Amino acid sequence: MQIAPFAIEQFFAEYEFSTPYLLCASDCETMTVAELLRLAEMSLSELGDLRLHYTDSQGSSDLRALIAAQYGAGNGRIEPQSPNALPVTAADIVVLTAPEEGIYLLMRTLLEPGDHVVVLTPAYNSLLNVAEHVSGNVSRWQIQATAVGWQLDLDELDRLLAAGAKLLIVNFPHNPTGLLPGAEEFEAIIALAQKHDVWLFCDEMYRGLELGGRETLPSAVTRYEKAIVLAGLSKVHGLPGLRSGWLVLRDAQLRADFINWKHYTTICPPSPSEFLALAGLRAQAQLTARNRHIIETNLETADSFFARWPGLFTWRRPQAGSVALVELHTPAVTAYCHTLAREAGVLLLPGEYIDYAAQFVRWGFGRVDFAQGLAQYDAYLQQSMPSAANAD
C-alpha cells in the first residue's frame, strides 16, 4: 500500500546540501557537541565514557523526569500554570529516536481504516499524509489568510468535528504560517475537542519560540485528558542533528500500545542521543534566548527587504516559531523556486510542497547567515527585475 510522496523532504533532498543560501530552513542555528556540553556544564569525557548499550524503550528515567518537569509550575519556561492544569509525570513521557517516529507510530496506534481525522492545514507533510494513509478519511481545517496575517475559523472546526471525528491534529506555534492563537482561542479549540470527545494531537515542536514578547501558551497536555503532545529539540533548541524528541501520552493503554509499535521500529533511543538530550534540556534557557534573538534580528532584516519589494511579496509577519508563509506575486511559483535555486543559489520552499496554495513560499529565520542569504536574493532581484523594487 503506497503512501503519498513526502514532498518537503524530497525537495530538500534535491537542494539542501548543494544550495548555499537556505532561506527556508525550519530549524534554528546549530552548534557543536563541545559547545552544547559547555553550556550544560557537562564534559566531553562523560560522553566518551558512555557505554553503547540498549536503553529503556520508553526512554531513560532521568531524561523523562527532566522532560516532565518542562510541563510543571515554576520551570522558568512554561505555563503560567492555571489552578486546574493537569499534571505530567515521567511515566507519561515516551522518548523518541526522532520526532517523525512519534507522528508515524501514533497514527498507526490510534487509527483504523475509516476513522475520521481533522488536520489543521497547511501542515508538515507527515501530519497530514500518514493520517490519510492509515485512515483514508481526512478533513482539512485550513488556516485563512487575511490582509496582514492568519486566522482560524472555529465554527468550521466545530462543523468538521461534528461529522464523527476521532482525532484532531493541530500544530502551535504553527508551521509554516507562524500563527500563534490567543489564550482564549486556544482554550476554545480544546473546548471543541472536549465537546466532541476526540483525541487531540498537538505538535508543539516550536513551543518556546514566541516572538515580540508574546506569552507561551499552556501545553495542550496540561489542559485536556485526551491530548497527546509531540515536542523535541530540533527547532527551539537548534539541535536537529540529535533527532531527539518525545511524546506526552497520559492514557496508559494508548501509551502501552504505542510502545508496542515502537518495538517493531527503533526499539529504544540511542544512548548518545539521550545523553546529549539531557544537555540540551539543561541548557534550555540559553538556547531558547539565543534562538529567539536570532529570529527577531532576522525578522527586522526581512521587514526592510519586503518593504523594498512591495509588488513582489505580501508579508505576513509570524507571531511565533522560526518560519513564515509569504505570498509571492510571480507566475509559476514552483518553477520560479527551482530556477532561483539553480541561478542564484537561494532556496525557498514552494507552497505546493506543503499542500497549500501555489503562490506561497515558506521562509525560515532561525539561522545566523540569514542576512547573507537575503543579500544574495536581493542582488538577484535587482538584476533580474529591477522595476519591481520600491523606488523609495
Total domain modules: 2
Number of helices: 13
CATH class of the largest domain: Alpha Beta
Q: Give the overall average pLDDT.
A: 94
Low confidence ranges: 73-80
The helix-strand sequence is HEHHHEHEHEEEHEHEEEHHHEEHEEEH
Q: Please state the structural category.
A: alpha/beta
- The CATH topology of the largest domain comes to Aspartate Aminotransferase, domain 2
Termini separation: 56 Å
Main sheet: strands, sense, barrel: 7 strands, mixed
Q: Determine the strand fraction and express it as a percent band.
A: 15-25%
Helical percentage: 25-40%
Global morphology: globular
The assigned CATH architecture of the largest domain is: 3-Layer(aba) Sandwich
Q: Biggest sheet, strands in spatial order? A: 2-10-9-8-7-3-4
For the secondary structure, the number of strands is: 15
Q: Would you identify the CATH H-level superfamily of the largest domain?
A: Type I PLP-dependent aspartate aminotransferase-like (Major domain)
> What is the C-alpha radius of gyration, as a whole number of Å?
21 Å
